[in-house]
């Protein structure tokens, strides 16, 4: 392919407003251009990379017997109303009406649509298990799209769905898909971790995320420094160490604490460590007030609270909601004398605090020497806290470390969350009507462009792994008006293409320095430069990833490229 015939609008400077390395380089190298906030055009080079990624995905999913198909991006809103997600998904859902005033959405994911398809077409267990998938644009109205393709409003996604008769069959498919995803990411050339994930608005039970460590990542990966344990921050746990105090219980005492409303002030006022304080926070869980207690040096993890209650929504109560529920300001909330209609739950570490300090449920007052069971009761204890670096790993091996990561894939055991709600039933072996057991599996195809770029780009530009590079070889004649160079260029291009390699030829009338800079920006794995030694039959070969260059005879070029390709 002649470079002069492609649209590759390279830039010398970073685009204004770009923060992430991947965003800067994908724009500078002429791969993408923003059409509107969070929506991008994929120019010819990016499109080729996307197609190569899709090829890898299709090859690995074919080994699981998954079948590709395509659903419309426009979905009847009624399906989402029936599943309950129309109102709970959030403001990211694109909603609109057609000319007949019928509600529709732009699909952010397609669980409901596929479930409805199965409901209307599969009636017997004999047709299961079944795996269907599509590769399609998805839409989420992000409040603040940023980092280029990492957080956008329109993106390309693989979404796959499995349908099984029972949980055992789901487990088998789930493991198959986990293995397939790992092979996909291995082939694409990513450094990634498979971690415990949060099902979030998807529902269901187990889920795993695939996260690519990167400084710009918006997810926090928690991992053990001495084992395979890894989870996102929202789902991470640590080994619970029972630190129940053995101090003599002191008499409960009410203390005036004017202008003492936060943990730092309480710690200073009473001259105690924060782990001797019990924070009492009021949450609104599915429209009902619930009090959660946590140790003063820890933070509540709202995701754990949401999962504990299997709730659709969990929000920290506003000051007015606290006042209405407890007749007190937030800085004085405590677990003593809580109204009967507000249940109290506590993090597991709270139980071990002896002679604690808490709010008194009276403005400007705190209790000291507060002890569980004697002075307050809770309905249940649970794991409600955010883990911290240095905590003991839950498997007892090593301590927890944090790193940033980009979520590139996610798999879910949905169970019967959607099939029960939408009525997707089959007849089992005994002729009974049962709901189909489902799984959901997704990869951010367009996001992989950014993930690979974040991990492998350097100060000179992009560095593409050979499996997904837009072209295998970049040929650069330094002087396109030199007949000998042009003849050699044409001969090498034909020879390499006959071997099944894709070739980009820089036939532009530009200075050699401009061509080399653009070549580094574009990031094709191997560059062949045809210059002054063309009359001697010698070319220069450069490996983009390492910067290593070697000279070779034209007759030996095929072998040289074969050898180098095995090393990159």
TrEMBL record:
<dbReference type="InterPro" id="IPR004154">
    <property type="entry name" value="Anticodon-bd"/>
</dbReference>
<dbReference type="InterPro" id="IPR002314">
    <property type="entry name" value="aa-tRNA-synt_IIb"/>
</dbReference>
<comment type="subunit">
    <text>Homodimer.</text>
</comment>
<keyword id="KW-0067">ATP-binding</keyword>
<dbReference type="InterPro" id="IPR036621">
    <property type="entry name" value="Anticodon-bd_dom_sf"/>
</dbReference>
<dbReference type="GO" id="GO:0140096">
    <property type="term" value="F:catalytic activity, acting on a protein"/>
</dbReference>
<keyword id="KW-0648">Protein biosynthesis</keyword>
<dbReference type="GO" id="GO:0005524">
    <property type="term" value="F:ATP binding"/>
</dbReference>
<dbReference type="InterPro" id="IPR033730">
    <property type="entry name" value="ProRS_core_prok"/>
</dbReference>
<dbReference type="Pfam" id="PF00587">
    <property type="entry name" value="tRNA-synt_2b"/>
</dbReference>
<feature type="domain" description="Aminoacyl-transfer RNA synthetases class-II family profile">
    <location>
        <begin position="33"/>
        <end position="465"/>
    </location>
</feature>
<dbReference type="GO" id="GO:0002161">
    <property type="term" value="F:aminoacyl-tRNA deacylase activity"/>
</dbReference>
<dbReference type="Pfam" id="PF04073">
    <property type="entry name" value="tRNA_edit"/>
</dbReference>
<dbReference type="GO" id="GO:0016740">
    <property type="term" value="F:transferase activity"/>
</dbReference>
<comment type="similarity">
    <text>Belongs to the class-II aminoacyl-tRNA synthetase family. ProS type 1 subfamily.</text>
</comment>
<dbReference type="Pfam" id="PF03129">
    <property type="entry name" value="HGTP_anticodon"/>
</dbReference>
<dbReference type="InterPro" id="IPR050062">
    <property type="entry name" value="Pro-tRNA_synthetase"/>
</dbReference>
<dbReference type="GO" id="GO:0006433">
    <property type="term" value="P:prolyl-tRNA aminoacylation"/>
</dbReference>
<dbReference type="InterPro" id="IPR002316">
    <property type="entry name" value="Pro-tRNA-ligase_IIa"/>
</dbReference>
<keyword id="KW-0963">Cytoplasm</keyword>
<comment type="function">
    <text>Catalyzes the attachment of proline to tRNA(Pro) in a two-step reaction: proline is first activated by ATP to form Pro-AMP and then transferred to the acceptor end of tRNA(Pro). As ProRS can inadvertently accommodate and process non-cognate amino acids such as alanine and cysteine, to avoid such errors it has two additional distinct editing activities against alanine. One activity is designated as 'pretransfer' editing and involves the tRNA(Pro)-independent hydrolysis of activated Ala-AMP.</text>
</comment>
<dbReference type="InterPro" id="IPR036754">
    <property type="entry name" value="YbaK/aa-tRNA-synt-asso_dom_sf"/>
</dbReference>
<keyword id="KW-0547">Nucleotide-binding</keyword>
<dbReference type="InterPro" id="IPR004500">
    <property type="entry name" value="Pro-tRNA-synth_IIa_bac-type"/>
</dbReference>
<dbReference type="InterPro" id="IPR006195">
    <property type="entry name" value="aa-tRNA-synth_II"/>
</dbReference>
<dbReference type="InterPro" id="IPR045864">
    <property type="entry name" value="aa-tRNA-synth_II/BPL/LPL"/>
</dbReference>
<keyword id="KW-0030">Aminoacyl-tRNA synthetase</keyword>
<dbReference type="InterPro" id="IPR023717">
    <property type="entry name" value="Pro-tRNA-Synthase_IIa_type1"/>
</dbReference>
<protein>
    <recommendedName>
        <fullName>Proline--tRNA ligase</fullName>
        <ecNumber>6.1.1.15</ecNumber>
    </recommendedName>
</protein>
<keyword id="KW-0436">Ligase</keyword>
<dbReference type="InterPro" id="IPR007214">
    <property type="entry name" value="YbaK/aa-tRNA-synth-assoc-dom"/>
</dbReference>
<dbReference type="GO" id="GO:0005829">
    <property type="term" value="C:cytosol"/>
</dbReference>
<dbReference type="InterPro" id="IPR044140">
    <property type="entry name" value="ProRS_anticodon_short"/>
</dbReference>
<dbReference type="GO" id="GO:0004827">
    <property type="term" value="F:proline-tRNA ligase activity"/>
</dbReference>
């Amino acid at each position: 392919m002649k470079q002069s015939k492609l649209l590759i609008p390279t830039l010398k400077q970073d685009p204004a407003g770009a923060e992430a390395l991947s965003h800067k380089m994908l724009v500078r190298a002429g791969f993408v251009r923003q059409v509107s906030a969070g929506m991008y055009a994929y120019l010819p080079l990016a499109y080729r990379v996307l197609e190569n990624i899709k090829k890898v995905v299709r090859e690995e999913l074919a080994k699981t017997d998954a079948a590709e198909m395509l659903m419309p991006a426009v979905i009847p809103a009624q399906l989402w109303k029936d599943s309950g997600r129309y109102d709970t998904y959030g403001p990211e859902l694109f909603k609109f009406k057609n000319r007949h005033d019928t509600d529709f959405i732009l699909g952010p994911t397609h669980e409901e649509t596929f479930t409805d398809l199965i409901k209307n077409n599969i009636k017997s267990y004999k047709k299961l298990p079944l795996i269907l998938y599509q590769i399609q644009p998805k839409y989420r109205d992000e409040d603040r799209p940023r980092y280029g393709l990492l957080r956008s409003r329109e993106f390309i996604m693989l979404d796959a769905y499995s349908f099984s008769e029972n949980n055992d069959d789901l487990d088998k498919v789930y493991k198959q898909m986990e293995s397939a995803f790992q092979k996909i990411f291995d082939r694409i050339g990513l450094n990634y971790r498979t971690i415990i994930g949060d099902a979030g608005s998807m529902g269901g039970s187990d889920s795993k995320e695939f996260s690519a460590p990167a400084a710009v990542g918006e997810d926090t990966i928690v991992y053990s420094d001495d084992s395979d344990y890894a989870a996102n921050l929202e789902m991470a746990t640590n080994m619970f160490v029972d630190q129940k105090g053995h101090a003599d219980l002191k008499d409960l005492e009410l203390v005036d604490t004017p202008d003492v409303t936060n943990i730092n002030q309480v710690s200073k006022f009473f001259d105690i460590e924060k782990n001797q304080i019990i924070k009492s926070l009021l949450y609104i869980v599915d429209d009902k007030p619930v009090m959660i207690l946590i140790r003063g040096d820890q933070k509540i993890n709202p995701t754990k609270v949401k999962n504990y209650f299997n709730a659709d929504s969990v929000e920290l109560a506003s000051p007015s909601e606290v006042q209405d529920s407890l007749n007190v300001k937030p800085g004085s909330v405590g677990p003593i004398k809580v109204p009967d209609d507000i249940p109290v739950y506590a993090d597991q570490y709270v139980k071990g605090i002896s002679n604690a300090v808490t709010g008194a449920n009276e403005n400007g007052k705190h209790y000291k020497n507060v002890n569980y069971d004697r002075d307050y009761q809770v309905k249940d204890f649970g794991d409600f806290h955010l883990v911290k670096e240095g905590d003991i790993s839950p498997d007892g091996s090593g301590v927890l470390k944090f790193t940033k990561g980009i979520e590139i894939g996610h798999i879910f055991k949905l169970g019967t969350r959607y099939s029960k709600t939408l009525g997707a039933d089959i007849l089992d072996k005994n002729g009974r009507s049962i709901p189909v057991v489902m799984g959901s599996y997704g990869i951010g195809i367009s996001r992989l462009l950014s993930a690979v770029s974040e991990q492998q780009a350097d100060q000179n530009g992009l560095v593409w792994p050979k499996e997904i590079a837009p072209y295998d070889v970049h040929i650069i004649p330094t002087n396109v008006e030199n007949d000998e160079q042009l003849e050699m260029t044409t001969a090498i291009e034909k020879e390499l293409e006959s071997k099944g390699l894709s070739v980009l030829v820089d036939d532009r009338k530009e200075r050699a320095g401009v061509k080399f800079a653009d070549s580094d920006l574009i990031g094709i794995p191997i560059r062949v430069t045809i210059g002054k030694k063309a009359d001697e039959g010698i070319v220069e070969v450069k490996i983009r990833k390492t910067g290593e260059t070697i000279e070779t005879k034209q007759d030996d070029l095929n072998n040289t490229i074969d050898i180098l390709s095995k090393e990159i």
